[in-house]
Amino acid sequence: MATVPDAGTSVGGYEETLLAWGLAQQASELDPEPEGKRLEAVLVAPEEVIAESDPYPDFLNIFHVRTREQVIRREVLLELGAPYSAELAEETARNLRKLGIFSVVRVVPVKGREPGGVALLVITKDLWSLRLNQTWDVVGSFLRALRLQGTEKNFLGRNQQLAVDFLLRPDTMSFGQTYINRRVGGSRWYLGETASLIIGRESGELEGSSGTVVLQRPLYSLSTPWSFSTSVDWNISTTRVFKGTEIWQLPYPDGEPVPYVYETRDVSVGAGYTRSYGEASKKNVSGGVTAYRRKYEAPASAPLDDAQREWLRVNHLPRSEEAIYASLSLSAYDARYEVLRDVDAYALSEDFQIGHSVVTTVRYAPPVYAAAAHYAELGAALRYRWRWGDALTTVSAGGAIRRALGEGAGWTNRRWAAEVHQVSPKVLGGRFVARGLLDVNIDDLFDRVSLLGGANGLRGSALDAYSGKRLLLVNLEYRTAPWVFHTLHLGGVLFYDAGSAFERRPNLVHSVGVGIRFLFPQFNVNVFRLDFGYVLNDARPAVGQRITFTGGQITEYRPSILETPLR
């Protein structure tokens, strides 16, 4: 069940321009009362990346193959001759938006040719698919990460993705490739694979590789009864943990600091099956089996003695282990969705699930061979979201715990997090957005440490200035309505941040600042942000280091345990 803006009202100029174009293309009129009428036809109006209403030269369309009509039609969930269902039309629109190849999707009922009939009109506008995707994290003059990905996201208009990938980090650079086919042979099966070679920047030598291969039949609609997935993952690399611009020097109690550097050897393979029940109130039951081997140790070439290596392993490295575990999961949620605009993106429709969402997972790893870990593990994530008129309130929580069995039995891996996220109604055209987050890591086997400072939540402070196994963070923003200039959507932000990464007691650091957000809807659906912050009650870095430039909103930085309690 979903609620969308009235198709006949001007709620978003960019999308409404496309809606008017699509209706004119098919010489159609909106049907104000379509529910239950017999579906006569499915009409498709696919628009180019550069439309006549856009300010860019349309010869650019030569370099883009528009999405093929059959790609759009095969996502339509309504059947010809069946009664029209607004819920299925809205689910069709959500599924098309999830593909990531359209900037705009509108699915509307139009008047049929016969009395008692209705037609479905699907209007889409392609995103520019042949692109050099750029993701970067810049604090002052320090480039924390840069990803350049030459991508064809919609190869020959078939909704297949080809990519070559370059990732630059302070210590490494990697070269890789990706292939994704969401409909293998026109079926409902998904195939995706990615692989990268990792090269050390200082040595210029190959340090390892990483990659993933996934084959699955997903739950493509609320009425899909089952899904199946299988995957292989690996990461063979050298991990260097940076604090600020330098490798973190850990305070060794009996001598010189020890660099936070270790070898990572992770390999896993798994398969799972899901059975889905209900439509308005969904319940999915999943079972699976996974085998993995994780090994972490100081590099053989590191100038460390045995005592330093043991101290690093015991106190700071993730836990090395191997196991085969069986898992059972239950997810339950309300299949209610709302569409809003000007929350995280400008002018474009954003889908939000309303009501409850619960995920619980239990795992058991038996001692099937001598070296295998023996444990039981439990994780849960809960979320509830309310819509109050044009406002949204979201409360989330997640937690996990492990019980080691056999010799050395005991509780461990205890971690929990909670978040409250509030989006206000529109005030002077813009919105207030507030978020409070607490992440508590009690005795994590994988020694995860939260780093805070810069673009990841506490703007205006030095990059990764604060560290600890626990995190408290508050963000408050006023996001103005966008100013639209030839489809460029440009907005401003006033913000207040307060945060602490700590071990026992938080010591909140406060900052305030201003920023801008901009969006080119022909080329991206996520905003870019440029922020300048000023720390009120702690050390202030040089002016250049108070500037952050990256993609997405600040509220997208949140612990994964809130969505996936067991990694």
Describe this structure in words.
The chain is mainly beta and about 575 residues long. About 5% of the residues lie in helices and about 55% in strands. The protein has four helices and 32 strands. It has helices at about 15-25, 70-75, 85-100, 305-315, and strands spanning about 1-5, 40-45, 100-110, 115-125, 130-140, 140-150, 160-170, 170-180, 190-200, 205-215, 225-240, 240-245, 245, 250, 260, 260-275, 280-295, 320-335, 335-340, 350-365, 375-390, 390-405, 410-425, 430-440, 450, 465-470, 470-480, 485, 490-500, 510-520, 530-535, 545-550. The strands form five sheets. It has a 20-stranded antiparallel β-barrel. A three-stranded mixed sheet has the order 2-4-3. A two-stranded antiparallel ribbon has the order 12-13. A hairpin with a 5-residue loop joins strand 22 (about 390-405) and strand 23. Mean pLDDT is about 90; it is low at about 1-10.
Please give the structural blueprint.
Elements: E1 2-3, H1 13-25, E2 38-47, H2 69-73, H3 86-98, E3 102-111, E4 117-126, E5 130-139, E6 142-152, E7 160-168, E8 172-181, E9 190-200, E10 206-217, E11 226-240, E12 242-243, E13 246-247, E14 249-250, E15 258-259, E16 261-277, E17 281-297, H4 306-315, E18 321-334, E19 336-340, E20 350-365, E21 375-388, E22 391-404, E23 410-423, E24 431-441, E25 450-452, E26 466-468, E27 470-479, E28 483-485, E29 488-502, E30 509-519, E31 528-535, E32 547-551
Parallel strand pairs: 1-19, 2-4
Antiparallel strand pairs: 3-4, 5-6, 5-32, 6-7, 7-8, 8-9, 9-10, 10-11, 11-16, 12-13, 14-15, 16-17, 17-18, 18-20, 19-20, 20-21, 21-22, 22-23, 23-24, 24-27, 25-26, 27-29, 28-29, 29-30, 30-31, 31-32
